């Protein structure tokens, strides 16, 4: 009689499967974009925003803490929040409020310039500000702040209401109450905000006296360390602080002293423990970043994907239909990738006698492999990982096409090979009726007062389909001066100057853009059905695209995603096995478990969240 897995093992496997289905699944373009920005610190072309500040750098020229400037900008953006009315909050309106005395400081302008080119369709300007705060705190040794995306950007100034040093305690208390903070939380948030940076004479000459050399401002720091720690608290409590907002001769400007002492120092004493300070700051800064106007729903927390699929694209290059995709794997810092590791891409045909892998599975090895430095994001390095990337480029028979793919990672060390198959569902290619052809697209740059870029975007439409409408939606929020985003639609027309290739004809259209990160969505309407390619990058077009030669395709017999051999990775117990005659009962029981979990009942699986 064949062995059967124990009931607890089967239920645990079901919990894993169901929990995964209810969590992240590819494709999830917004999650993927936010996750990539947070854990890789960069945009599609490799430009890295985190590296502007990391590791806990000072700004060239002013020598101010960049992390402190990024943190201050985020608070000033959120400070106009009215918790009762649901207005204001982290919405990017700070870009239109720098002419106010409450937002004085060259660091505010410098920070906005740091951020201007990194927003996109799925990472809003205010998401960039929030992520910058996470970067800054992590880079300088502070706690890792949970991050969510989905903020909606304001396109004009909001209400006034940022606290200023000369205001009295009652005014400050009311401002923080309006934001949704208690007195204790006000004290904590100010202490957390003032562990980095200080006060410059050219921003606040009444607090820090200007130097005789007008080109070199004086700078007085809040504490004696340049990292995110509780020294600002300890020095305040032991009376050795040099915090200018505590010891300023003019008592009217001692705003930190009034706030810190407002409860007879009880809160400051509670922050004397480094662990308590880190925990309290993590909580308060997360709350600050999540203060948004009513009607805005933030995403789930963006957690690290240990196996991430990116840049999946069926396209035409050098008159060949190719499928390109990358697999990013985490690797623990101070460990190396085994030379014996093999990573395989596997996929099924969409059409023909071998559709959905009826006869065999196609497979190929990577065309290229590279490793990222751990420091590309302070969040990833603090978690203890770096990334290993495997790029695939395989030729595809256009008559067969591709419907689904997955990966096998084998360390060849006696352990079972890992299967990455989108939690048993496979990574599905939704359609092949409209494709992006970046190698046939191009961009021209017209220098001048407006610096307009003209993009000639080419889409490939599969022959046999008769589209009634082919068009693109263009979006770019990375606009100079934080101008209103480009958000427009352009009709694409059949382009007879491009010879049909591999069963595809070509449509093209023109987009003009002043921004720095244009993305397009291609759409084709056939018989009332809309086929779409979403969030397509335009950084590399035509000859600027690095060419990756296709690798050799082989065929094999492999288990399909979701089949028993791919799911049953939980080792069975040697006892408590289920006799054959009882299998129908237990199978029914397990289906009931799935139904119960999906209905949101109290059944709990003690598994880490995704």
TrEMBL record:
Enzyme category, top tier: oxidoreductase
Transmembrane segments: 585-607
Residue ranges of domain Plant heme peroxidase family profile in the record: 108-310
Pfam families in the cross-refs: peroxidase (PF00141)
Top-rank taxon: Eukaryota
Region forming the signal peptide: 1-23
Record GO terms (molecular function): heme binding; metal ion binding; peroxidase activity
Biological process (GO), any one: cellular response to oxidative stress
InterPro entries: Ccp1-like, Haem_peroxidase, Haem_peroxidase_sf, Peroxidase_I
Keyword NADP: no
Keywords: Heme, Iron, Membrane, Metal-binding, Oxidoreductase, Peroxidase, Signal, Transmembrane, Transmembrane helix
Enzyme Commission identifier(s): 1.11.1.-
Annotated family: Belongs to the peroxidase family. Cytochrome c peroxidase subfamily.
The protein's role, per its UniProt record: Destroys radicals which are normally produced within the cells and which are toxic to biological systems.
Record protein name field: Peroxidase
Species this chain originates from: Crucibulum laeve
């Amino acid at each position: 009689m064949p062995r059967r897995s124990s009931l607890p093992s089967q239920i645990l496997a079901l919990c894993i499967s169901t929990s995964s289905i209810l969590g992240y699944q590819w494709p999830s373009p917004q999650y993927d974009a936010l996750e990539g920005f947070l854990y890789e610190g960069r945009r599609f072309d490799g430009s890295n925003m985190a590296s502007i500040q990391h590791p806990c750098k000072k700004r060239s020229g002013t020598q101010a803490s960049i992390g402190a400037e990024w943190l201050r900008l985020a608070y000033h953006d959120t400070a106009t929040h009215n918790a009762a009315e649901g207005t204001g909050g982290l919405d990017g309106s700070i870009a239109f409020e720098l002419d106010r005395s409450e937002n004085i400081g060259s660091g505010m302008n410098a920070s906005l310039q740091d951020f201007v080119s990194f927003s996109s369709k799925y990472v809003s300007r205010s998401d960039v500000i929030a992520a910058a705060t996470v970067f800054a705190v992590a880079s300088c040794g502070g706690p890792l702040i949970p991050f969510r995306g989905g903020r909606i950007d304001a396109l004009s100034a909001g209400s006034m209401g940022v606290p200023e040093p000369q205001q009295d305690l009652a005014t400050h208390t009311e401002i923080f109450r309006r934001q949704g903070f208690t007195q204790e939380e006000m004290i904590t948030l100010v202490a957390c905000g003032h562990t980095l940076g200080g006060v410059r004479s050219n921003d606040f000459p009444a607090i820090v006296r200007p130097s005789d050399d007008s080109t070199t401002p004086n700078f007085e720091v809040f504490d004696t360390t340049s990292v995110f720690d509780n020294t600002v608290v300890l020095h305040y409590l032991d009376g050795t602080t040099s915090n200018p907002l505590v010891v300023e001769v003019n008592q009217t400007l001692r705003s930190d002293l009034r706030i810190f002492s407002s409860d007879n120092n009880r809160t400051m004493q509670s922050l004397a423990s480094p662990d308590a300070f880190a925990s309290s700051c993590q909580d308060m800064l997360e709350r600050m970043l999540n203060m948004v106007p009513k009607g805005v729903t933030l995403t789930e927390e963006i957690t690290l994907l240990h196996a991430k699929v990116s840049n999946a694209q069926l396209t035409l290059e050098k008159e060949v239909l190719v499928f390109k995709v990358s697999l990013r794997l985490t690797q623990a810092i101070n460990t190396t990738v085994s030379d014996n590791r093999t990573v395989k891409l596997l996929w099924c045909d969409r059409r023909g006698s071998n559709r959905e892998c009826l006869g065999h599975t196609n497979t190929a090895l990577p065309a290229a492999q590279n490793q990222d430095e751990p420091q590309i994001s302070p969040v990833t390095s603090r978690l203890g990982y770096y990334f290993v990337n495997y790029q695939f480029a395989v030729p595809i028979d256009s008559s067969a096409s591709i419907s689904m793919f997955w990966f096998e990672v084998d360390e060849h060390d006696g352990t079972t090979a890992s299967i990455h198959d989108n939690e048993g569902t496979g990574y599905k290619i939704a359609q092949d009726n409209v494709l992006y052809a970046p190698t046939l697209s191009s961009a021209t740059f017209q220098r001048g007062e407006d610096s307009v870029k003209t993009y000639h975007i080419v889409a490939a439409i599969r022959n046999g389909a008769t589209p009634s409408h082919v068009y693109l939606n263009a979006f770019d929020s990375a606009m100079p001066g934080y101008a209103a985003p480009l958000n427009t639609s352009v009709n694409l027309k059949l382009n007879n100057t491009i010879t049909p290739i591999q069963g595809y004809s070509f449509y093209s259209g023109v987009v003009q853009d002043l921004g720095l990160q244009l993305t397009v969505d291609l759409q084709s309407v056939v018989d009332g059905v809309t086929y779409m390619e979403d969030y397509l990058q335009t950084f590399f077009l035509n000859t600027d695209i690095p060419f990756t030669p296709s690798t050799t395709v082989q065929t094999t017999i492999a288990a399909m995603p979701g089949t028993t051999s791919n799911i049953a990775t939980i080792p069975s117990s040697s006892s408590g096995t289920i006799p054959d005659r009882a299998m129908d009962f237990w199978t029914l029981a397990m289906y009931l478990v799935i139904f119960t979990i999906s209905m949101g009942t109290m059944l709990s699986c003690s598994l880490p969240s995704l």
